[in-house]
Amino acid sequence: MVQGEVGCAADMLSAADAVIVAASNGFDIADGYNQFSCDKEFLRVFGDLHRTCGLTSILQGLMARWPDRELRWKFISRLIAYGYRDYEPSPVMRALDQIMAATPRFVVTCNCNSRFERAGFSTDTILETEGSYARLCCTTRCSEATYDALAFVDADEVPLCPHCGAPLDVAVDDAGHIARLEPFRSQAARLRAFLAQHVEERVCILELGVGQANRAIKAPLMAWAEKTQQASYIVVNREKAVLPALPLERKLALRGDLAEVLIDLANVMLANKAEERP
Ligand SMILES: [Zn+2]
């Protein structure tokens, strides 16, 4: 990665009237959370389930049909505690927070661990497109309600729906059902309002660790940027970037390690700010 590109990104972000962060798996991994891996960290948290049930990743555990409800809840409750409740913001998350501290901001993410909320980002400015396991919902989908997972996380018994008595499970999916449930429906409405409010301003979209063929968050944000007069778009990724059709000065690809890029970016912006002071 070229250092000059970090400077360009810092200038684009400093000039922005609003910032939209699009974050996916690559950001989670840089933040210390890898839902695909059977690494040391996974075995530290889920080692007993690995030995007894053959569990090899968080994603597998979420998707799997477990032999019984109690075992699934054992996995789910531990995931909620590990991935959400006990999360401490990493240097990468703190750098991101610092980059956007002075600007109206909105986070759009496929990550389902609500770590942005945990790191102090306002719940009014987050859209979780695949839901979050910080919320539970009824497995029969008898209502649109979801429930705070922290209220149940320490219980050994499987939590039950107060309306129909069916088991509750995490409010997570990638098939679109979750979008009908609260708070996710309201989150999407707030993003629409944010985009409408800032459409004529210099909005900078900062895309972090999102698959370059992603259709859930990348494609709609690129299409939105292309329709505006002033929005800019930055892709930070290990892969070769797919950029929207914008004038050259309004788009930028930073290829490299996400953690390094964000920490560099925060440092450059901090140094620029220090220079500006009389
Ligand atoms: Zn129910």
Summarize the model shown.
The chain has 278 residues and is of the alpha/beta class. It contains 10 helices and 9 strands.
Question: Would you kindly provide a written description of the structure presented here, covering whatever features stand out?
Answer:
- The protein has 3 domains: 3-32 and 94-130 and 184-276, Rossmann fold; 40-85, no CATH class; 133-180, no CATH class.
- Helix 1 crosses helix 10 (258-276) and helix 6 crosses helix 10.
- A 6-stranded parallel sheet has the order 3-2-1-7-8-9, with helices on both faces.
- It has 10 helices and 9 strands.
- The model has no long low-confidence stretch (mean pLDDT 95).
- The protein has helices at residues 3-15, 25-30, 40-53, 58-63, 69-85, 91-99, 115-118, 184-198, 218-227, 258-276, and strands spanning 18-23, 105-109, 126-128, 131-138, 147-148, 168-172, 203-208, 232-237, 251-255.
- With 278 residues, the protein is an alpha/beta fold.
- The structure holds zinc ion.
- Zinc ion (ZN) binds next to loops.
